[in-house]
Amino acid sequence: MSQTDIEKASAFPADKELIMKAVHEGPGAHKLNVAINDLLIDWSKTAILDVIQSREKECVDSSTDVQFARFLRKVGLLFWKQGFYEHALEQQQRALEIQTKALGDLSTETAQTHNDIGMTYSNLHRQKEAVLHCQKALDIRKEILGEVHKETAASYSTVAMRLKSLGELDEALEMVMKALDVRRNLYNNKDHADICRSLITVGRVLAAREEHREALEYLEKAVDVARSDNVQDVRLEARALDDIGSSYSKLGKVQDAINTYEKCLVIREKILGSNHKLTVKIRNNIESLARSC
Q1: Angle at the Cα of 225 (from 221 to 274), degrees rounded to 5?
Q2: Per-chain mean pLDDT for the chain
Q3: Of the chain's two ends, which shows fewer C-beta atoms within 10 Å, N or C?
Q4: What percent of the chain has pLDDT over 90?
């Protein structure tokens, strides 16, 4: 959405001077920026909903129009990316209703929409509903695509993280280990970014179970895979290093934690910049640990 900043806006010098004088004598630039951005957000929401209505009028029967359902799902994703989760959920649920009626329950498109709804419920902190929809997506994918398929593996991992959010760690670990097994079978045990992601997720679930030594084994493997010739993904490497630093810290290995965080910091400063929230988080972790020495 718009990030209008009135103080940086283009204007003739005399006009800008008058505008800024009025702003500072009135509500102030920050409050006015907030008000303008809120108005633009409201306008954009209304515009998107108007487009949906217009698109629906073009349908012969919108209740079974698969193309319209795909459009609604894309709109839901747009709202989701912008943080408008209630709006996203409304469009995703409409899409699911149409897809179920037109395609039936066993459809890859229906599975994807169930997954989308699950992620939206998760962002709304409604984890039980999130698990139900993510599990439904998994069940459909297993039925249609089989066990050894990348989307099935992704669903196992998604369900695992939702279960982790509910504190159901035994079930979460079982699911994420299945995701790892599927991906190893899928890629014939060769290094792959998806295997790296699974190793990180296993590490996170083990860490949540306070099994930090076991977590470190998987996370260190993840670093090796991320650095391998077949993968070479510094973002995944940084993610694993971040988690390794956390587990070292929980084990009381302060210097090991600092050393690992420093490696992570180098990567994140390079790819995200010094002021990115993930970079700042790592820097704060290092400073906090250094003070505790």
Answers
A1: 95
A2: 89
A3: C
A4: 77
- Which distant-in-sequence residues (6+ apart) come within 8 Å of 210 by Cβ? 250
Is residue 222 within 8 A of residue 252, CB to CB? The reply is no
70 and 163 in a common domain: yes
CA proximity to 263, closest of 277, 245, 281, 247: 245
Q: What is the CATH number of the domain that holds 271?
A: 1.25.40.10
149 Cβ contact list (under 8 Å, min separation 6):
141, 182, 186
pLDDT at 100 over 50: yes
Instruction: Count Cβ neighbours within 10 Å for each residue of 270-283 and write b for 16 or more, e otherwise.
Output: eebeeeeebbeebb
φ/ψ bin of 253: left (φ > 0), alpha (ψ from -120 to 50), beta (otherwise):
beta
**pLDDT tens profile 171-222:** 999 999 999 999 999 999 999 999 999 999 999 999 999 999 999 999 999 9
How many domains is the chain partitioned into structurally? 3
Same domain, 163 and 78: yes
Q: What is the 3-state secondary structure (H, E, C) of 112-147?
A: HHHHHHHHHHHHCCCHHHHHHHHHHHHHHHHHHHCC
Torsion on CA atoms 224, 225, 227, 229, rounded to nearest 10: 130
Distance of CA 206 to the CA centre of its chain: 20
Q: Identify whether residues 124 and 172 lie together within a single domain.
A: yes
Q: Which domain holds residue 95?
A: 65-190
Rounded distance, CA 155 to CA 65, Å? 26
Question: 244: which residues sit within 8 A by CB, 6+ positions away?
Answer: 216, 219, 220, 223, 260
Q: Is residue 196 part of a domain?
A: no
Cα–Cα distance for residue pair 284/102, rounded to 1 Å: 52
Are 43 and 120 within one domain?
Answer: no
Q: For residue 228, what is the DSSP state? A: S
